[in-house]
Amino acid sequence: MDMSAPLSTAPLHILLALSEGPVHGYGILQSVRERSGGAVKLGTGSLYRHLSKLIAAGLVTEAKAGASTDSRRGSLYRLTARGGQVLAAERDRIAALLASLNAAARRVRRGSV
């Protein structure tokens, strides 16, 4: 996973879900569905494929369910410090893009394009 490139939709939403704290896979699916208003359709298989890539990239860590967690839910996933940095960089990239879009919209409204 190239971290210099913009994140695609699903990994971005997964990292956002994990920014709220450790979550089981089902909780990630629920968060993505709620956050996107149902626009991002993430199935179980694709969730775990994305999680595997995010873990391999060092952005997410997995903790097996222990006695203190609901073992029926499987693993808990957590955002790593590097994952937080990537999420912050993505926020900055999107903020800069939004600023450019707003400036372009103002120019269009003024008719200076």
Helix/strand-derived class? mainly alpha
Under CATH, the topology can be stated as Arc Repressor Mutant, subunit A
Please state the CA-atom Rg, rounded to the nearest Å: 17 Å
- The residue fraction in helices comes out at 55-70%
Query: How do the strands of the widest beta sheet line up side by side?
Result: 1-3-2
What does the largest sheet look like? 3 strands, antiparallel
Number of helices: 4
The amount of beta strand, in percent, is 5-15%
Total E-strand runs: 3
Instruction: Give the CA-CA distance, first to last residue.
Output: 38 Å
Query: What CATH first level would be assigned?
Result: Mainly Alpha
Shape: elongated
Explain the overall architecture:
- The chain has 113 residues and is mostly helical.
- The chain has a single domain, classed as Orthogonal Bundle (Arc Repressor Mutant, subunit A).
- 57% of the residues lie in helices and 9% in strands.
- It has helices spanning 9-18, 25-35, 44-56, 81-110, and strands spanning 23-24, 60-63, 76-79.
- A three-stranded antiparallel sheet has the order 1-3-2.
- α1 (9-18) packs across α2 (25-35).
- The protein is elongated and about 60 Å long.
